[in-house]
Amino acid sequence: MRISNLLAVAVLLVSIQAVEAGEADILGAWHPEQYVLEDGTELDVSGLIFFTKSDWTVLFFVEDENGEPRRGSGEGGTYLLVGDTLTFTHFYHLSAGDEIGPIAASPLRMSVKEIEDAAEEPCRAEVGEETMTIHFPSGNRMLFRKSSGY
User: Fold this and answer.
1) Which residues in 55-77 are b (16+ Cβ under 10 Å) and which e?
2) Considering the entire predicted model, what is its pTM?
3) Which residues contact 99 (CB under 8 A, 6 or more apart)?
């Protein structure tokens, strides 16, 4: 019993030191507020991205000027955050949508990958207490606002 208590205290102290050292806390749910394409085009977006200690999942919709969803994506897998590098591993992907702005129409796409076949997507993440911007390899970026706790 004493060893487990000591381990719990040690984990807590390491966690506190990590936060004090400036490590970003992305755990929980985040609501997308802005989707900016590489060319500067801003698109309306709605949905949520969730982060647990090692897993992530996202459901988002790009909306037209009337707030109607025109394209959507559901994705998930594992992630690793080291410094400002957020690397997504994609195990699950479902997407489809109409043309909107400079983005071409996309037919329905579904995939489930095993660990050895999963694509990795290294991104740059700017994480604050209430906001997070993810810069994707495509040059696009999404601004998120903290939605809820863990």
Assistant:
1) ebbbebbbbeeeeebbbbbebbb
2) 0.81
3) 70, 105
Return d(Cα 70, Cα 106) in angstroms, integer: 10
| Residue labelled with tokens 């991104």 | 123
Residue range 84-101: average pLDDT?
97
In this predicted model, what pLDDT tens digit does every residue of 44-60 receive, in sequence order?
A: 999 999 999 999 999 99
H runs (alpha helix) in 21-136: none
Strand partners, 73: 60, 95
What distance in Å separates the CA atoms of residue 90 and residue 13, rounded to the nearest whole number? 32
Q: How many CA atoms lie within 13 A of 55 on its CB side?
A: 7
